[in-house]
Known about the structure:
Pfam families: BSH_RND (PF25917)
Helix content: 25-40%
Oligomer: single chain
Protein name: Membrane fusion protein, cobalt-zinc-cadmium efflux system
GO molecular function, one term: transmembrane transporter activity
Shape: elongated
Mean pLDDT: 80
Keywords: Transport
Family: Belongs to the membrane fusion protein (MFP) (TC 8.A.1) family.
CATH architecture of the largest domain: Beta Barrel
Amino acid sequence: MMLLxxxxxxxxxxxxxxFFSMKSIQHTSFLIxxxxxxxxxxxxxxxxxxxxxxxxxxxxxxxxxxxxxEGLALTQQQMNAVGITISNIEQKNLNAVVKASGQLAVxxxxxxxxxxxxxxxxxxxxxxxxxxxxxxxxxxxIENPELIQLQQDYLTTINHFSYTQDELQRQKDLxxxxxxxxxxxxxxxxxxxxxxxxxxxxxxxxxxxGINPTSVANGNIVSQITIxxxxxxxxxHIAVNTGTYAETSKPLMEIVDNxxxxxxxxxxxxxxxxxxxxxxxxxxxTNQNNAEIExxxxxxxxxxxxxxxxxxxxxxxxxxxxxxxxxxxYVTALIDVGSQLTPAAPVDAIVRSANKDYIYAVDExxxxxxxxxxxxxxxxxxxxxxxxxxxxxLDSLAAxxxxxxxxxxxxxxxxxxxxxxxx
Length: 423
């Protein structure tokens, strides 16, 4: 509108100029005044247009830089629904450690392969894989005709031993009466000793097979034997079925006792001088919901494993019965070789936004019984081990300040969504 007015004014000035030039030179002063007025009006219009453009640019810039929202308030019900947990900043030893990997293992005396001393047909199986049993519990029943022959040999030897014993006594009586022959006495004594030894051997064989020699001597012959558990523990893989022929060279099943489970870690030569008996060990297992498990080194091997230049370090697990630990589980552990404690937060407590790392702390000044307010705090992160990350606070927090240890990403998403709505 202002530009149109200026154009019209200029046109009128031109017409008036022609008019006045034709009329008289006396109007020259009036023409100059009109020209100056036109220039002033045109300058004012340009200034107004420039001001409007600057305002539009300023508006555009403000849209590109929205106001940052650092806080969020949630009720306890909302926190429970999304799984937000709160705790203090912990002190962790993440620097003065030796990182090692390995597996869970049990001592040799806590593992057993169930074998048979005499082959036979599997008639019954009393256990299932994964079942916990006690020492001496019945596992399987085996049948073998050779058992009957062994018991018969035992009975025959016992009956013949009675005659041998009487013959020895008769030769002694004759020798005492100077009526016997020394050679006969010696032969009777030799036979007696041989028969007695044979009885003891057969009785021991019957006992190893689980048969009572006294019961056999009383005429109780059996054709089946029961194989019992040599140790208490959990039944592992069962390699036989009902009707399978049990061989003496092949285990029927295995039993594992995890009560003395420990961790075998591989420490390489460059770190070996730092590791000593008695040092604390921390490690995590995924099947334990990332719970931190503690142990302590109780033994260090004195020979390298193959060509890896690694030494096996044995760590006993404290309160192992509390966890569902299984032999062969792979673990990554941290051996505490110093005492450099540093502030640390769980990995789930740290979020990243605009190339910066943040945690969310509880704003005690704004929080009440109805809502909990959170404020964003920038941190610098360090090493990450066993689910914890070293942090350095850029803003001071109270010594007993509580932070979000799980669910921080939800709060970040919520604040960003709020910022977009305001824009």
